[in-house]
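yo

u said u wanted the structure for the complex thing, so here. seqs first:
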Amino acid sequence: MEERFYVETQYYTFASHPNELELENGEKLGPITLAYETYGELNREKSNAILIFHALSGDAHVAGYHKGDRKPGWWDNMVGPGKAFDTNKYFVICSNVIGGCKGSTGLSSINPATGRPYGLNFPVVTIKDMVNAQRYLIDYLGIEKLLCVAGGSMGGMQVLQWTVSCPERVRSAIPIATASRNKAMQIAFNEVGRQAIMSDPNWNKGDYYDKTPPNTGLAIARMVGHITYLSEASMEQKFGRRLREKEKYGYDFSIDFEVESYLHYQGLSFTHRFDANSYLYITKAIDYFDLSNGYGSLFEAFSNSTHIKFLVISFSSDWLYPPSQSKEIIRALDANGIDVTYREIESSYGHDAFLLEAEEQTRIISSFLKFAYEETK
Amino acid sequence: MRKDYELIVDLIPEKSKVLDLGCGNGELLVLLREKKEIKGKGIEIDGERVSESIAKGISVYQGDMEEVLLEYPDKSYDYIIISQTLQEIRNPELVITHSLRVARFVIVSLPNFGYWKIRFYILYKGRVPSLGTFNYNWYKTPDVHPLSIKDFEDYCRTKNIKIEKTFYLAGDRIIGLCPNLFATSGLYVITQSS
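structre next:
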């Protein structure tokens, strides 16, 4: 068995009064704390730093173990010694997003103006705001230029935003199972999730931090979300029409099918680890995401990113962020003459494939990074 | 080194921008990178081969060349290479036309289905051959558009495509006499006639 490595979440606070961070919607936020973890060692030239971004429900704990935990971080199959993001070679950073509920400043944080949790007084943040906040962290860590920015799903959106917002600080980028903008179907699913939360009486307009939280709504939101992360084939294979602990139908709206039980479990366990208000805010940030915003076109957006090497990865059965949306990114990169590699990995896991298909991703990402790193020498 | 690769490496000037259509495992682009310091890119539809190319540090697009070639701007590459691929493409005319638009020079190498052994095989055995570079059974062959040297040269003439350079190969030997009969493959540099 491989040796476990232990990590601790760290915190960096900045943007205190009067230097609050100006957000895309014009409001100001501060002070801001970002939760982050680091793995491996920054080399003397500071040329081996990789910033990894998490998806909607993720956190800074990308790999390794926290003391006392039985489960490792969310991308432990990809990040660690000898893995795709090889922490023997690279200095890997993963930061939580603002608006989240995993240690960074978010809706349950205390609003310095009121002494109470922000709740809905928290400004609506965007992917661009998340990236702007991370930039402070990278400054603080003393890194001028990142060897790579990488992430899947919403993490991939942050990757793309970095290459457009601060291209001069990025050498290479790996956006995975993602898109340059959220489209109607993606917004639609997010809205169902938000409505589930907001119609839970416990939601109380977001003011529930000293009361019972809207767990029913959040669980339903997660159930909907979870379906979009799977594929028809993977669900059929995993559950089929199998019944849950019964021989015949109940005819009573109790749980009949395995798949129902699974979704209930996923929904319930999500309420133990995620904040409903954060779910509203982060899905909204995803919905607002359109990389071409302010540039006229996606092509224009990448016009200052021509020195960055891209590895774009999609998965054949991902219907939430399908390969066609990765190809939209490729077209805009190609038109700019940007060095881009595209790999569509055959998988039946749907959107979740970026967390599960470690073998093939390891193969291509480790090669891509190796060549990108050699170029720095 | 394969003779056709050797010819291609000789033909391409240093530091050119090169697109290899159907780049396979990227071996030709690696050669060109090492010998000519080119800025190269491949297009390949097979995922396994794409990964092999990535492992060699080659930039590659996994997908259908007939789709992506249309998207590339005019003259955005110095050279496009179509190496032993033309006969496998569903719409070779579209690929040739757009290659001539996208690159200043197009290098085409193709297996010659006019080769005498193939003629012999069909004439005496009455069967579609599976030998040499053509070693697939009819039901497995990727060669959906078999063509001969004469076919290709006729095509260029009728479409007003300029053949800048021609090489005929019998295996690894360059030959001159009766190429449509004795060459196993032809290699061309073609350009758009102005």
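Chain B has one domain: 3-113+146-192. The two ends of chain B are 35 Å apart (CA to CA).
cya
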